[in-house]
Amino acid sequence: MKIRVLGSAAGGGFPQWNCNCHNCHRIRRNEMNGKPRTQSSIAVSTDDRNWLLFNTSPDILTQLHAFPAIQPREGVRDTGIKAILLIDSQIDHTTGLLMLRESRQPLDIYCSDMVKQDLSTGFPTFKMLEDYCTVNHHPVPLDGSSFTIPSIEDLKFYTQSLKSKAPPYSPHRNDPHDGDNIGVIIEQISTGKKVFYAPGLGEIEPHVMDAMQLADCVMVDGTFWTDDEMVTQNISHKRAREIGHLPQSGPGGMIEVLNSLPNTRRILIHINNTNPILDEDSEQRKTLDAAGIEVSYDGMEIDL
Ligand code: MLT
Ligand code: MN
Ligand code: ZN
C-alpha cells in the first residue's frame, strides 16, 4: 500500500498565521532548518488511483494541488478520492469537507456516531452539505471487528476508540464517549502488512499497545514535545494531556512507548508549530533521529 502524507501539522499549521513563537518566527524569516507544514491528513491506496482520505484538512485544496495521483483523470468531473474516514470532528480534520462540496457523488464518510453527532450539531457540516453534494454516513465499528470500503481494493480496517478529546464545540467536550476519537489499523489483505494511524492519542491503553505491536508501521500523535509546551511559551494555559495529546518526552511519553517497538517503522504526525522537533537542528530532533523515529512532512510517501 502507499500512504501519502497530505499534511503533517496540528491545528493551525506551520507557521500559524498569527503565531510568533520561536519556530513560527524563525521559519517565516528562513532562519530555521525546517519545513512549513499544512494541517494533518493522509491518503491511502493500493493502486495509485483510488484513494481513501483520512481526515479533510482546512488545507485540502493546497494538498490536492500538490498531489497529481489524486487529481481528475477522465470526464468533465473526476477525483481519486473514493471515500473519507474521519478520526475525530476537530476543525483541523473536518473543515475540508466544505471544500469538497462540488463533488458529483454524495461523499462516502466513515466515522463514529459521536463524530457524526458533532458534525450535525456543534459544527454542522453534514447538514450544510445536504444542500450541496450530500453525505452518506457509514458508522465505524468500535468493537474490534473489521470492515472494508467499496472501491478501496485490498484494504481492510479496524477502528478502535482512543482516549483523546472531543473538540471545544462538541456537545460532549467534557463528557467523553467512545468514538470521540479513534485509531485505525489499515491492513493490506494480499500482503498482511499493517499500519496503525492515530494522530490524536492521549493515552496508551492496552488495546492501543496491542495494535502498535501488531503493526509494521505506526503513524502517531506528534503534537507536543512536553506537556507544558504552550504554557512555557506563553501561548495558552492548556497542557498537552488536558487536550488529549501524549507528549513525546519524559517518563511514559511517546518516545518511551515507541522505543519499545524497535522493529517497527515509527513516524510522528500532527505536529504542533511550537514543537522543537520541527527544527531539524534541535537537540530534540537529534534525540528522535538517534532513536530512529521519523518526523512526517507534507508530501512524504510511505510504501509498505
Ligand atoms: C487538536 O488536535 O487538539 C487540534 O489540533 C486543535 C485544533 O485544531 O485547534
Ligand atoms: Mn488536531
Ligand atoms: Zn507558532
Automatic annotation (TrEMBL):
The keyword Transport applies. GO terms for biological process: pyrroloquinoline quinone biosynthetic process. Residues 50-271 form the Metallo-beta-lactamase domain. Coiled coil: none annotated. Pfam families: Lactamase_B_2 (PF12706). Pathway: Cofactor biosynthesis; pyrroloquinoline quinone biosynthesis. SUPFAM superfamilies: Metallo-hydrolase/oxidoreductase (SSF56281). It comes from the Bacteria. Belongs to the PqqB family. May be involved in the transport of PQQ or its precursor to the periplasm. This is Coenzyme PQQ synthesis protein B. It comes from Methylotuvimicrobium alcaliphilum (strain DSM 19304 / NCIMB 14124 / VKM B-2133 / 20Z).
